[in-house]
Amino acid sequence: MDCPICYQSIALEDEAYVATCYHRFCHKCITEWTVQQRRHPIYDNSGGRRGNRPDYRCPMCKQPYLYILFDCVLNSFRVEFVDDEARRRGCVPSGGMGMALSAGHRRRRALYVTQPRQTPQLPEQQRPAQLGHVHSLQGLGQGQVQDSGPAPCPEAQGSAGRTSQGPAATATAQAAGRGTVVGCAVKVRRHDDPELRVFVERELQALLLQEDVGMLLEHVLGVVKNISGSTGANSSGSASRCAVASGSGITVSVLRNSRYVPPAAKRPRTMAPSLPPKQEFERVMSTEMESFLQQKGQMFASQLYMFLVSGLSVRGYDELVFGSDVTPQGMADKKASEGTERVGVGTGRQVLVDLVDNEEYDEDDDDDDDDDLSEV
Q: Which three-class secondary structure state does DSSP give residue 321?
């Protein structure tokens, strides 16, 4: 469907609707239409010319509207009121705290309802063994992973391009279960990795439309800790010193009266984290998250697994899935959150955002418009 104003095809990320007729336009076009109506107001004749707010009418059906709906994702959308009076009339009693979605939140949230575009494969040195030789991350957004075995390292291939067989191949398969490719280490993120915390927090915020997800975040990290099996050695310095003393035959009383200083205890080793098979990880995680995310729990578990085995940072993972940003991320986040007022209306219902107009909304100083209402 083309925009009735500019006659161009309406992109999904640029669609907007006017309430309450809900005719569809480009957001830029209907915003400019509203600005022009504000600069050249038409008043309702039934109420008199002076002292009343101007009418903002839909260009299609000429019905009045108070706000524009845009940035619609699942059950959330954003609302731009035409003026202050429309904002006062359109305010909804708050049913809970919400949050303004950044560009990263919107992209991650959209993955749960739309098919992502094709993404490039991981470099050979960063490709997790769990993904296998023929695994591509083209289905990364939807977590489509096949289990076809580990990828052979380039050094393990012969001059004719054949993969080495025998004990070396068996060692390769065993190394794959520990999250490594032969000759190419893969960094599997631990449960206490800051990047993992950032990713999970953003994922939960995008799904729940709530900023405070601290308790659920700790629950997810605890489940990851139990699943990954990343444990440390339970040894202390005092225990090591006792072992040294007993091993050398020195009693505690002699040790106290002598100048002998036992060697410092070695730093306890921490086992490298390893992930179970994808199906097992998703089964456990989705079971734990089902009561919080309902039907999205399975998808959340799949997305989390793909991030863990990627070994990438949050920024690198976003570039892999969505590509590089055309506009700077900081500008997009600032535009999404600047001058916003969030009004939540309960779980599973619409979440409204009131945006302050840009500077282009400023009216020209004119004597005829002295009594007009102030702009948004």
A: helix
Position 198 pLDDT exceeds 90: yes
Q: Judge whether 196 lies within some domain.
A: yes
> Is residue 177 domain-resident?
no
17 in a structural domain: yes
The candidate with the shortest Cα–Cα distance to 144, out of 134, 153, 154, is 134
pLDDT, one tens digit per residue, over 276-313 is 888 999 999 999 998 888 888 999 999 999 999 888 89
Containing 311, the helix (H) or strand (E) segment is: none
Asked if residue 319 and residue 237 are part of one domain, the reply reads no
Give the end of a domain, one of 221, 252, 269.
269
- Residue 326: give the domain boundaries: 129-146+185-231+272-330
Using a CB cutoff of 8 Å and minimum separation of 24, what contacts does 149-155 make? 149/173, 149/176, 150/175, 150/176, 150/181, 150/182, 151/124, 151/127, 151/181, 152/182, 153/181, 153/182, 153/183, 153/184, 154/124, 154/183, 155/182, 155/183
What is the pLDDT at residue 5?
A: 92
Number of structural domains (the chain) is: 3
Closest CA to 153 of 126, 124, 173: 124
